[in-house]
Each structure stands twice: as C-alpha cells, then as structure tokens.
Design a protein that fits this description.
The chain has 68 residues and is mainly α. The chain is built from 3 helices and no strands. α2 runs antiparallel to α3. The protein is globular.
Length: 68
C-alpha cells in the first residue's frame, strides 16, 4: 500500500519549488482533471477542482486589480 503525505507536508514541498516548477505542477493538475472530465463529464472531483480553480483565478485577478 502506498503511503500518502499529509497536506502540510505537500504544502512544504510546494514552498520549496521554483516558480517554473509550480507552473508545471498546476499544469499537471489541470491536465489530470481535464482528462477525468473527458472520461466522465459528470466527475464530481473534476467539477470541484475546476470550480475551485475558477474561484482562485478570480480572487487573484481581483487582488491584482486592487493593487494597481
């Protein structure tokens, strides 16, 4: 059985990545959930991922606009 890291450990791992590596992680996640949707257009996990991703993009865009 494969052991899984705790969320805090994964967060620490992310903190140690360079910006280009973070972009790669985001791309891999997007691709993975996009493939899930291709296999099952009603995938609850993929739907939740894309809903939360949209919220994060919107919040980040709004924060960036407020800084200008």
């Amino acid at each position: 059985m494969e052991s899984r890291k705790k969320a805090d450990d994964i967060w620490e791992d992310l903190g140690e990545l360079a910006e280009d590596e973070l972009l790669h992680v985001l791309t891999k996640l997007f691709d993975s959930y996009y493939a899930d949707l291709a296999r099952d257009s009603d995938s609850p996990a993929a739907a939740l991922f894309f809903r939360r991703l949209e919220q994060a993009v919107t919040q980040t865009s709004q924060c960036n606009l407020n800084r200008r």
